[in-house]
Amino acid sequence: MSEKSVETSTARIVVLGTGGTIAGTSATAGDNIGYTAAQVGVDQLLEAIPALARSGYGIVTEQVAQVDSKDMDFAVWQALAGRVAHWLAQDDVAGVVITHGTDTLEETALFLQAVLDPAKPVVLTCAMRPASSLSPDGPQNVLDAVAVAGSAGARGVVAVCAGVVHGAFDVQKVHTYRLDAFGSGDAGPVGYVEEGALRLLRAWPSGRSLVPAGIAGKVVGASAVAAADWPRVEIVMSHAGAGAGLVEALVAQGVAGLVVATTGNGTVHHALEAGLLAAQAQGVQVLRATRCTGGRILTTPGAVLPDAGSLSPVKARVALLLMLLSPART
Fold this sequence. Notes:
globular, Rossmann fold, alpha/beta, 7 helices, 14 strands, 9-stranded mixed beta sheet, 330 residues
């Protein structure tokens, strides 16, 4: 990992690079889809944004990883959480910005919020166009992220894209191509960045509680267990004609947890449900999360499989993974 100070100032903002489209390049400037992600280092990325010099902060950069975020893994998450914690502990650091790919940004955001619950802001930002684009969106997103990281009273993990600030619990990629690719569902955005100024709409993310306490113990830090030894948690989907075969195969492979992406208000095809109940009886932790993009699961009387409330299936997987890592798990 490299570390570089770009500018000196009383307060510093640290920019951690992890790759993604924001650091991607294509062979031709007009190609916004046929690019290769994670090609430009964070130093080079920031050098192309001269307006950062007017931010009023000392900017420190560090390359934590260089990956296409579709390939994000536990080792990067563990390293990233460690570096974020390190920098937030510095008294003169106002906040941390993370450049990240869009594909798994929502999962990383929830992971960091759950593990760190930071009292200072941690701002993930991204791009839908590569750095080599005729009109890249990454530079403005970075400027907006730095503005949020330096805002008075800011705390917790948020994502900033296309001038919108999304909380870690709610952010979700909702579009495959447009620049404004993220939404916050029913909760709505935390705020907007308008000409470098934050307009706050609701409270900053706070806390670690993700799912009903009866499922498992507290979600704690994930630094004590080597990433290679983290439990396996997979997602299966309920749909017309769903069966138990995939669940049975995963149990045979030693899966520790299963999230089922349910239909509607937590409903599961009867054949798949039978497989999940059998897995649960064998000690596999099972969690329901609706595949609907809006709303949350309202638990019905007599529900035999616990639910993740408003968490999407991919976020429920992060929550279940962390609970299985917790030494306090019941």
